[in-house]
Write a structure and sequence with these properties.
heterodimer; A: 385 residues; alpha+beta; DNA primase, PRIM domain; B: mainly alpha; 3 domains; four-stranded antiparallel sheet; flat; disordered C terminus; binds iron/sulfur cluster
């Protein structure tokens, strides 16, 4: 990133901070702030131990410095501006979840597919948070991170003083780590499955299994659907269906299955139930980045700021809006006015529903695309057209 | 006039009710430390600590609720004056155990009041007990049985179902936290508390010394005398290597057994570049809160943690024995050869 590009980006970010509504987190006066400015990039120099006493003071900083990255602490401190962590005096911290493509075991390669995948993880997490943990929507801030995922900030006073180890128990819960009902192997003996009436993981697993079985309506599709389970191929699937599986899991029997009973279905092999439980666990669990939740002093990206590595806005969402949120359109804040950029090597991106290919040399692109690629370090700024 | 004392106050001297009651008695500290009327409270305070060293605190209602109750703050002052990490741990543990014994006989209603004392949001209904998950994990996260893990609980709408027995266990944890909290006390500098209690403190020191010789853990920790397995584990931790739990446990319990405090241990582990203080502290404190003995050589070998055994190892079956021998050897003029120089 050359000086010219940095200057241009700084001006663009400045415009953003002047024009868009900026939200400060609750109790921002008690949080530590940290910023990474364009000046030193690509070196990451975090200016931290900053604090603000008023909203105008914070806004003034953002507008004059136009940082590439803006963070505030998840923690509340008595003296957030103190130079050492010990002097700050920790008072509590929001409960944070970070869902990021980097931490998914099997994230797809393309950026849009990856974001979609992380979103579905986020939906699962939200289900745990609202249902099992009983957090109300007002106490949660759900945001697109501006990068490759989502953040959830839980600001419920009940969880503020939880220590790291206690927060890790929450992470283990949503990710299903240490679940005792997990079969040790496909061949494990099993006399019942988790019950629908037992709250928590049992119910979630039972509901998933029942939903799955109910979808096995006709023999044709059932053979295909059964192959979604690990270790079941076409042969095994067909054998199960021919063996009367569909009758076993008919509506008449579903009630007892909800109740965890499986012994009366002598024809269904044990291994199928074990496979179903394992699959249910995979489908229910939410992969969150464990160390983030456990870190009670972490700095986290400011909602409504811009992400200097993508130029995307860190967009606040709700349970209702996240479903239809498309980061590559809805988090884009810059215009379609044309600018010229230059690239050392070809690059590509998807933005606002279009695909853009950049050739080596000078290219004309919409400003939003140019800014995005500049932030990613793929192109340098030439001029406004 | 002070309200009629309830003997429960003496059984649960750490509660806010007990503290308020003591405050109402309005006894100036110099009186408590010096006046004849409180002789028995002072000697009972000393006895509490000595009993703790010996293993078990017995209640003494003979001396009357007030004096038994007053002996609690005195015991804490004595422990603070001695200022020995091992003593603090052992004392707090013994107090908590004694309380747990009493708690076992209490009815549910009383337990619920005790829960409130610790700010637990707990409700009792026909369906049983349910507790807010935040109050639950605060204490349950330390339990080793996987049945305590939140992921294995019935959690719905933010509350966890628990049995009465489990509730007692959670209370026990809350109580040991409360008892350990604040120790050693910040004693008022203008009053020489430790001087006033010096005779009692001496007796406690003697008992402590006897206990320590019995276990031969006297004196400052001497890293040069650490057995190879422990030295190795500590070196790895300082390098930031993620050690298996069994090795971390071995190192931590070993250091505790030779009399190091949690703070010292955290400091000792803190050499690593990505040292996670809160995590380490949690692990160390988790182990500190209990009376664990470091694993013996057999166990160390089973878990692959016996690393670098030297010639002295052939003569011991426990890393603590290695340490004692070498320490004695070093003190006695290097009677034991040091193959590693
Ligand atoms: S023999 Fe015992 S003391 Fe020696 S290294 Fe092995 S475990 Fe440690």
């Amino acid at each position: 990133m050359n000086e010219r590009t940095k200057n241009f980006l700084r001006e663009k970010f400045k415009e953003y901070y002047l024009e868009y509504p900026i939200q400060l987190p609750p109790d921002f006066e008690h949080r530590e702030w940290g910023f990474i400015l364009f000046d030193a990039l690509p070196k990451i120099v975090m200016r931290r131990h900053t604090s603000f006493h008023s909203r105008p003071e914070a806004l003034e900083y953002l507008r004059s410095m136009a940082p590439a990255h803006a963070f505030s602490s998840v923690a509340y401190y008595e003296h957030p501006g103190a130079g050492t962590m010990a002097d700050k005096n920790w008072l509590g911290a929001d409960l944070i979840f970070d869902l990021d493509a980097d931490h998914l075991p099997d994230a797809p390669g393309s950026y849009p597919a990856m974001l979609a995948r992380v979103k579905s993880e986020t939906m699962r997490l939200l289900d745990f948070l609202t249902d099992d943990f009983g957090f109300s929507e007002e106490t949660m801030d759900i945001v697109f991170s501006g990068g490759r995922g989502y953040h959830v900030h839980v600001r419920d006073p009940m969880v503020r003083t939880l220590e790291s180890a206690e927060r890790r128990e929450i992470v283990d819960y949503v990710s299903g780590a240490g679940l005792a009902i997990k079969p040790t192997s496909i061949a494990s003996s099993i006399s019942e499955i988790p019950k629908e009436t037992r709250h928590g993981w049992s119910r979630k697993i039972n509901r998933w299994i029942v939903g799955y079985l109910q979808a096995l309506k006709d023999p044709e599709t059932a053979v295909n659907k059964l192959q979604e389970l690990d270790g079941i191929g076409a042969m095994k699937a067909k054998k199960l269906v021919d063996g009367g599986l569909l009758d076993s899991v008919s509506d008449a029997n579903i009630g007892r299955i909800r109740n965890g009973e499986i012994k009366f279905l002598a024809g269904v092999p044990k291994s199928l139930w074990n496979r179903l439980i394992l699959k249910a666990m995979q489908e229910v669990r939410a992969s969150v980045d464990e160390p983030v939740t456990g870190d009670i002093k972490r700095l986290i990206r400011l909602p409504t700021s811009l992400h200097g590595g993508s130029s995307l806005r860190v967009v606040p969402l709700t349970l209702a809006t996240i479903e239809r949120f498309d980061p590559l359109t809805d988090a884009v804040v810059f215009s379609d006015r044309e600018i010229a950029v230059t690239a050392d090597k070809p690059a590509a991106c998807d933005l606002r529903g279009s695909h853009f290919e950049i050739a080596e040399g000078v290219n004309t692109v919409p400003e939003c695309v140019g800014v995005h690629l500049m932030c990613r370090g793929a192109v340098e700024y030439v001029k406004v057209l | 006039m002070a309200p009629a004392p309830d003997s429960r106050l003496a059984t649960y001297p750490f509660t806010s009710g007990a503290t308020a009651y003591v405050r109402e008695l309005d006894i100036p500290l110099p009186d408590l430390l010096g006046r004849h009327a409180y002789d028995r409270a002072r000697s009972r305070g000393m006895k509490r600590v000595i009993q703790a060293i010996e293993g078990r605190i017995e209640r003494d209602y003979e001396i009357g609720t007030d004096l038994e109750l007053l002996s609690y703050p005195i015991a804490r002052m004595i422990v603070s004056c001695v200022g020995d990490n091992y003593l603090i741990r052992r004392y707090a543990l013994a107090e908590a155990k004694a309380v747990y014994e009493s708690l076992k006989a209490e009815p549910l209603d009383f337990l619920l009041v005790m829960g409130e004392e610790f700010g637990m949001r707990i409700e009792s209904s026909d369906q049983g007990l349910s507790i807010h998950f935040a109050d639950y994990v605060r204490y349950a996260h330390r339990m080793r049985d996987p049945g305590w893990k939140l992921v294995n609980r019935r959690l719905s709408g933010g509350v966890v179902r628990i049995s009465e027995r489990e509730f007692r266990r959670l209370l026990q944890e809350a109580i040991s936290d409360r008892i350990r909290g604040g120790l050693p006390l910040d004693l008022p500098p203008d009053l020489d508390v430790c001087d006033a209690l010096s005779a009692h403190i001496e007796s406690v020191r003697d008992a402590l010394g006897a206990r320590k010789t019995e276990f031969e853990i006297a004196g400052a920790a001497d890293p040069d005398a650490f057995p190879p397995c422990i030295a190795h584990a500590i070196a790895m931790l300082q390098e930031g290597v993620n050690l298996p739990h069994s090795a971390r446990f071995a190192a931590t319990s070993f250091l505790l057994n030779i009399g190091m405090g949690a703070d010292e241990i955290v400091r000792m582990f803190s050499g690593s570049p990505d040292f996670d203080e809160s995590r380490t502290r949690y692990q160390v404190e988790h182990i500190t809160g209990r009376e664990y003995t470091a694993p013996g050589c057999d166990t160390m070998k089973t878990y692959g943690n016996c690393i670098g055994a030297d010639s002295l190892c052939a003569r011991v079956s426990h890393p603590l024995n290695y340490y004692r021998l070498r320490k004695r050897g070093a003190g006695g003029g290097g009677g034991i050869d040091r193959p590693d120089g």
